[in-house]
Amino acid sequence: MRETKQRTAILEFLRSKRQHCSASEVYDAVRVKIPNISLGTVYRNLGNLLEKGEIISVETSDKCVYYDGFTSSHAHFVCSECKNIFDFPLTLDAHKEIDDMGFLVENERVVYYGKCANCNKK
Amino acid sequence: MRETKQRTAILEFLRSKRQHCSASEVYDAVRVKIPNISLGTVYRNLGNLLEKGEIISVETSDKCVYYDGFTSSHAHFVCSECKNIFDFPLTLDAHKEIDDMGFLVENERVVYYGKCANCNKK
DNA sequence: TCCTTATCAGTAATAGTTCCTATTATTATT
DNA sequence: AATAATAATAGGAACTATTACTGATAAGGA
Comparing C-alpha atoms, which of B110, B69, B68, B104 is closest to residue B89? Predict the structure, then answer.
């Protein structure tokens, strides 16, 4: 994989941002630096970075994928009202049961859907 | 909500099937009974049934939504070797921490990636 | 039976994502 | 530094899951 300014910019942006971003948000942000970057390039590189494990992704109910530059594993909470995504630490022994059965968990994806504290109050 | 043979057939199919199905799989299956059912009708009724809580949905990484007539939620384990998908019960108090913060968890999706007991032995 | 209107079939439109191709830029080699 | 080989790019067309629209149909109450 060659190093290109496009991919570097995408990764840098995702790492600098503390929120999860959709592909088009990444596109808009990176376009400030590289005005003629293509949306296809954004998608291709998000795919590459995902495969290399440099970023992670979350699927929400609004049918578009969100990307996250923070790879240390954590659970996601997607609010159905305000559409914000919150991070939570993973409960450490969540898959103890599975381990005990001889399964090897290499990666885990935990997403909660519901209403965040703010929206739930209303 | 009126009772229609279309919605009944969709729900019956999802309950009879032990796997998660995409909208078009539901469409194909129900078309055996009701040849001229429309795909739009399938989507509309899947939406209705979801809203009523009669079925649940899971978003996977392959960008289409899967529907399940078994509403009790469970975790999935995807084996990277044999590609089988295993069901596990969810740890009950997994999101206690989140509840305590005033968040309302309406749905959760837990997917583990790794090697199943069989493939791990080798 | 008749009326109201939710639901339907069929189809067009939408939107996120992927694919295609000529061009550009990176990396290794001379 | 110049060259060659080719991975990655820009731009746009194509693809596909889903939603929206419209006139026709049928469920269910009066």
Answer: B110
* Residues of chain B positioned with their CB less than 8 A from the CB of A112: 95, 98, 103, 105, 107-109
Task: Give the residue among B12, B18, B49, B51 at the shortest CA–CA distance from B33.
Answer: B12
pTM (2 d.p.): 0.80
Domains of chain B, earliest start first: 5-68 (1.10.10.10), 74-121 (3.30.1490.190)
- What tens digit of pLDDT does each residue of A25-59 get? 999 999 999 999 999 999 999 999 998 889 988 87
Q: Per the structure block, which two tokens stand in for A14?
A: 């995702």
Among partner residues A97, A114, A120, which is closest to B107 by beta-carbon distance? Answer: A114
H or E stretch at A98: helix A96-100
Paired tokens of B89: 């019960």
Q: In this structure, which amino acid lies at residue A57?
A: S
Look at residues B75, B72, B36, B30 and name the one whose alpha carbon lies nearest to residue B55.
Answer: B72
Rounded CA-CA distance B9/B31 in Å is: 10
